[in-house]
Design a protein that fits this description.
One of its GO terms (molecular function) is coproporphyrinogen oxidase activity. By secondary structure, the protein is α+β, with helices and mostly antiparallel strands. It is built from two helices and six strands.
Length: 91
């Protein structure tokens, strides 16, 4: 972790797989928001995964904090999807 100013940012090597970067960054955001809120409340985490037989399978996490001291309602959600990007979608 790098601590510059108030928030800590994750130090993830650029060579890391993108899903690792996404997950690590989300966890850092959640931790920083909980600390900033100061109420002792934590994000409710709902992790999900698509069927691995699906060509566009993926995973994600929906995280919500409600009723905090500073944060009335906050969310930090992620989705990682694999698949082939068609030429038409790339434009």
């Amino acid at each position: 972790m790098h601590t510059s100013g108030r928030a800590a940012t994750p130090r993830v090597p650029l060579s890391s797989p993108r899903p690792v970067v996404v997950h690590t960054t989300q966890q850092a955001i959640l931790s920083a928001a909980e600390a900033l809120d100061g109420s002792g409340r934590h994000f409710q985490r709902d992790q999900w995964q698509r069927d691995s037989a699906d060509a566009n399978a993926g995973w994600g996490a929906t995280c919500v904090l409600e009723g905090g001291r500073l944060l009335e309602k906050a969310a930090a959600n992620t989705t990682v999807v694999r698949g082939t990007l068609s030429a038409a979608r790339a434009q």
